[in-house]
Amino acid sequence: MISGVLRQGGAAIVAAGAAPLALAALAFRPAWRSGADERLGLSGEYDPGAVWLHGASVGEAMLLARLVPAIRKQGHRVQASLTTLTGRDTFRRVQPDVPVRLAPIDHPWPVASAVAQARPAALVLVETELWPSLIAAASRRSVPLALVSGRLSVGSWQRYRSLRPLFARTLQRIDRIGARSEADAERFVSLGADPGRVHVTGDLKREPLSTAPAAQPDLERMLAGSLVFVAGSTHAGEERAALGALFACRELGLPVVLVLAPRHLERLSEVERELVASGQRWRRRSEALEGPLQPGEVLLLDGLGELASAYRHAQLAFVGGTLAPVGGHNLLEPIQAGCPVLFGPHTDRVSEVAAQIIEAGVGRAVRDAADLARACVEGLSAAAATPAAAAIHFESLRTDALARTLELLHEVIPEPSP
Question: Which in 207, 222, 348, 402 has the greatest CB count within 10 A?
């Protein structure tokens, strides 16, 4: 009993010591101040007893959307949390009948409050959402834990090795880890995960959504009559590169329009300044008239949930976070929409998929902004001459990741009560 009291007292001291860090996160990250009550575990949409799915942002929201129908089909209710506002709002749009909230700050007090309110049948984390306090709080309540579509890039793995004792303790609390690849599985084990609990289940982002993006006739009308180049999930510097590619196409007389979709909407004012400086004609999607864009014009997507639809109308796409040293975003989303994809050299997060896309002939790596412009001219020139050349089949890159993930979760999630 004394040792238990000491452990509880030690945990309280650690929590109190970490409290200023949690408050600093709210103070210095303005985006985190919105929904602060949810981040502090004080409120939110809960469905006690339901399986809790957790992801980071927009990409993970769409990944979770692939899991929801299958988990429900097994008789379970579902609740969800996302780290970012855009992630939460995206999930709410694609799964409007699933309770969703912002994830608690990874501090013992907010996560304890959130777990107590959620009382989840199981906690399912995706990709690299390895929050030590959240995992510890769930483990203390004997909540079954799983990580699915788990990934560890080489860079992340090298950074985490210096914190191996912390990560080993966290990973050992997880009942099952479904890794994207053999390499990811080996990295989890090297950081301390129990080898018997780690299985290769594949990348859930290769699975199609249960429902296709809703058709948007006004967007289709706006993009009609031109070749469409979409630059999606862009970061600082990549909008300028995309505009350079548009300018190169205009110089050769190609009737190209550009759709720009910044990864983070809080950068919109920065991107708008870049557009003004470029001298190109441009419109905001939220304010645009329905008339079709003219060749050389730019459409700025300034809301959530329209990138997938834009890809469906495009002849060529560039996925950001790859010219900027971020590591890459979902390269398969344009492929799934039937659109070839370009990407830069920084693909640490998506290296396996990038290699397979190149091998399948449905995409191409570019070195820099000048190379992006050349590839864009070549790709759109070919699409103008033979439009059918842009019809790429996503099926060739699919796996059975969803089925294998559900098998893994079946070992973790208890049977639903009658």
Answer: 222
